[in-house]
Specification:
Oligomer: single chain
Largest sheet: 6 strands, antiparallel
Number of strands: 17
CATH class of the largest domain: Alpha Beta
CATH topology of the largest domain: Rossmann fold
Length: about 325
């Protein structure tokens, strides 16, 4: 029997957009409830062990304390949490070394982005506890636990897909990556990180174009409601030639002026003409300085994501087949 990894981002869904929009707040207790449901779902299928990231607020530890009858082997990754993104990176790296069969992530697009830097071919099952959740699922924790354990144990094998990624290249060196959208902004500093003003965006590269997206990715949803070919991303230059409506944050619908829309093939580098900070999957992460040469290129090197609908269908079909 195999292992399942569990990452709980204690600060997901807590950024400034709680003050500037109608974004909800998934508190510590709710995250603990999700973890308890996850563990019970995993228990129902059974795995060799659950490896857990020790989060800074002790969310997973509280959930385990509240499940004294849990018939499941578990252990915390041997690390001291710092309360920042390096916790996720370090924990996922260790889980991959331990050959976990799947990793469940409680967080938003940003948490998945950070995990994807070191997750390799390990399937991820992201559960939405962030702000702009294009990748993570709104799914019951019990179902998510069942699916994650089934994938880890090899009971589900045809329900995974790999995301594209958008690489940020500065002066010829890959600096970071986005999985949903990469935006060039006029914000002079990373500051509060969230992009709240469309007038501060000069152009955006959108990898994941889905009709139900919010954030800068919603621009792509409005322009290409039927999605994109697998070998393309969308490049949008902000301007004034025509307007669309976009949902930058929960409860915040605004007009966005567009100058240019083009589909870019994977492997093609596109220079960014003007930017002070670069937004990655909803947050300003990288500052650009005078003299920097900034380029963007997409490839197929994103993380492997579990398709929860296909996974549960396959699991039930296999159970019915085995019972016949």
């Amino acid at each position: 029997m195999h292992k399942v990894g569990l990452i709980v981002n204690p600060v997901s869904g807590t950024d400034i957009r709680r003050a500037t929009s109608t974004a909800g707040f998934v508190d510590i207790m709710q995250k603990a409830r999700i973890v308890k449901s996850l563990l019970k779902g995993i228990e129902a299928v059974g795995v060799g062990e659950v490896l857990i990231m020790p989060d800074f607020y002790g969310i997973a530890a509280h959930a385990l304390w509240d499940l004294p009858q849990l018939n499941l082997k578990w252990s915390f990754i041997d690390m001291k949490p710092k309360g920042d993104y390096t916790d996720t990176v370090n924990a996922v790296r260790e889980m991959v070394k331990e050959n976990v069969g799947s990793i469940v992530i409680l967080g938003g697009d940003g948490t998945v982005r950070v995990a994807s830097k070191v997750s390799g071919n390990t399937p991820l099952l992201p559960i939405s506890t962030g702000t702009n959740n294009v990748i993570p699922y709104f799914i019951d924790g019990t179902l998510a636990g069942i699916i994650a354990a089934a994938v880890a144990n090899g009971l589900v094998i045809n329900a995974m897909y790999r995301l594209k990624r958008v690489l940020l290249i500065i002066n010829g060196e890959v600096i970071d990556q986005a999985l949903v959208d990469l935006g060039a902004t006029l914000y002079p500093f990373k500051g509060a990180r969230a992009v709240t003003n469309p007038n501060m965006v000069t152009e955006v590269f959108i990898s994941l174009v889905k009709p139900l997206s919010i954030g800068l990715a919603s621009i792509g949803a409005a322009l290409k409601p039927n999605g994109l070919p697998n070998d393309r991303i969308l490049h949008v230059v902000i301007g004034s030639r025509f307007n669309i409506k976009a949902i930058l944050m929960p409860g915040y619908v605004t007009n966005v002026g567009i100058d240019k829309v083009e589909e870019i093939k994977l492997g093609v580098k596109v220079p960014i003409s003007k930017a002070y900070t670069i937004e990655l999957d909803g947050e300003r992460e990288v500052e650009v300085f005078d003299g920097d040469y900034v380029e963007v290129m997409a490839d197929e090197g994103g993380p492997v994501i579990i398709d929860v609908n296909k996974a549960i269908q396959e699991l039930f079909l296999r159970q019915c087949f085995n019972c016949s």
